[in-house]
Specification:
Elements: E1 4-12, H1 17-30, E2 34-40, E3 49-57, E4 68-73, H2 76-82, E5 86-95, H3 102-105, H4 115-122, E6 125-129, H5 131-138, H6 144-152, H7 160-170, H8 176-191
Parallel strand pairs: 1-4, 4-5, 5-6
Antiparallel strand pairs: 1-3, 2-3
Length: about 200
């Protein structure tokens, strides 16, 4: 692998963004790459936005970058916002989950529904998954983040062994089997989608 790959993980507090970033970082290290990561948690404990960035390559000199090659989003509106982080022809892996912001709940504005059109306008590859349903199928709805990581694994350069090491290193042992199932279901669901625009 030449150069540095940047992955941004975005979502709402409590959706497992930090765990997803930890799995990705451990996976990249298992592949023998240099890894740098950073987190912006803000008001995460109150349902605010969370952004984690994981960068990997032969030599990585900074944990932050202007743009990402892949954006992983656990919520639709965060996915729409995450498009601004994406390089041209990058990949957005996004859950169909909706967490309605206050303005929508109060009827002051509509929940935006233009993700597919916005991704197409940017030339982005979009993988859209019902991650919560797949996570429930795996055994725990809270594993939706790992479902998305399974789908994202299709566009990231790591072997199955490296991914398994990453899961084992970052996920607590008592929920590891559920997360392995969630990862496999996400990878299968992603493989059934058209990845190119």
């Amino acid at each position: 692998m030449n150069g540095t790959t940047t992955v941004s993980l975005v979502g709402v507090g409590g959706q497992g963004i930090l765990l997803g970033a930890a799995v990705l970082a451990e996976t990249a290290m298992a592949a023998g790459l240099d890894v740098k990561a950073s987190d912006v948690k803000g008001m995460a404990q109150r349902g605010g936005s969370v952004l984690s960035t994981v960068r990997f390559g032969r030599h990585v000199y900074s944990p932050v970058a202007r743009h990402a090659d892949v954006v992983f989003a656990t919520e639709l509106l965060e996915g729409l916002r995450g498009l601004d982080l994406l390089v041209p022809r990058g990949t957005l892996v996004c859950a169909t989950t909706r967490i309605l912001p206050g303005g929508v709940l109060r009827g002051e504005e509509a929940y935006p529904d233009e993700l597919a059109a916005a991704a197409a306008a940017r030339g982005a590859r979009l993988m859209l998954l019902d991650a919560e349903t797949l996570a429930r199928e795996a055994g725990n709805a809270r594993a939706a983040n790992i479902v998305l990581l399974g789908a994202a694994s299709l566009v990231l350069p790591f072997s199955p062994d490296a991914w398994d090491h990453g899961l084992g290193a970052a996920v607590p042992a008592k929920i590891l089997d559920v997360n392995r199932r969630a990862f496999a279901l996400g990878r299968d669901a992603g493989a059934r989608q058209e990845v190119d625009p």
